[in-house]
Amino acid sequence: MTPPLLEMRGIVKCFPGVRALGGVDLQVGAGEVLALLGENGAGKSTLIKVLAGAHTPDEGTIHIEGAEASIANPVDAQRAGVAVIYQEFNLVPALSARENIFLGRETTTAGFIHAGEERNRAQDLFRRVGVSIDPSTPCGRLSVAQQQVVEIAKALSLDAKILVMDEPSATLTPQEVERLFVVIRELKAQGIGIIYISHRLEEIFDVADRVTVLRDGQHVGTRDIGDVDREGLIELMVGRAMESEFPARDVEIGEARLVVRDLRRGEKVQGVSFEIRRGEVLGVTGLVGAGRTEVARLIFGADRADGGNVALDGRPLHASSPRDAIRAGVCLLSEDRKAEGLILGLSVRENFGLPNLGHLSRFGFVRGADERSAFAGYARDLQIKMTGQEQAARTLSGGNQQKVVLAKWLEANTEVVIFDEPTRGIDVGAKFEIYQLINRLAAQGKAILMISSELPEILGMADRVLVMHEGRVTGTIDDVKNATQEQIMDLAVR
Question: What is the CATH code for 256-492?
Answer without folding.
Answer: 3.40.50.300
